[in-house]
């Protein structure tokens, strides 16, 4: 009998809870219906304002500035260029191992190492010294077809095209040699490129730079100078980059975008309400642009050689 009483209590308790739940739901429904009636009685509510069109068609004061490495293209243009020069016997395996190590680091870490950028710059300058500018431009066109064309991010390419379709100029801004950057810009149908300028005399490279590497704050200065020359209003302009090193450039414009951002830039963008675009896939390996399995073995071999070389040098 005690068990029967307990079951009867449970049934009553369950019934009471069901009634309570039903009454609460009915009350919430009545309240919601009443609020809707009051809103309709006062006339239709204003729809939320649509997000303003961007880029703005016909805005002659606007332009867009795109970083190249890992923003427009997977990997670093300078390293792809070095790989192409090796294929053409401009240097030997020792330099190739260093390029392979630097490129592997860049892809695995997803960030630029200033020391690697500096080493790559010095290597390229020493390699091209004494060669004609016209010769390297011709080779650069071939290298673009061999190593760079297939690494252009379609999503970033579409962003650049949207600015072009709006009648705006679009510039690459990169630490890569200006000749390489100009080739990429021309192939993509962009307006032009700001890049690191190597000194040449009589059309022959001297192995020196004009000024310094176009990197970090130097990019911001280049954008500021170009905007002044072009009569642009930076508040109307957009800039796109993957790297926290480009925060000075991104901070100049009214429409900064973090594209495939490294950790520091992603954090900064979220804190400042900047827009983010990420065209990498979900897996970590794919995010950083590691090649398919067939290419991974070759890259790993180059990395191993680079690591061994780095240890010997230390």
Automatic annotation (TrEMBL):
CDD domains: HAD_PGPPase. This is HAD-IB family hydrolase. It holds the Pfam family HAD. It comes from Streptomyces luteoverticillatus (Streptoverticillium luteoverticillatus). The chain crosses the membrane at residues 288-309. Residues 28-55 are annotated as: Disordered. GO terms for molecular function: hydrolase activity; metal ion binding. The keyword Nucleotide-binding does not apply. InterPro entries: HAD-like_SerB, HAD-like_sf, HAD_hydro_SerB1, HAD_sf. Keywords: Hydrolase, Magnesium, Membrane, Metal-binding, Transmembrane, Transmembrane helix. Belongs to the HAD-like hydrolase superfamily. SerB family.
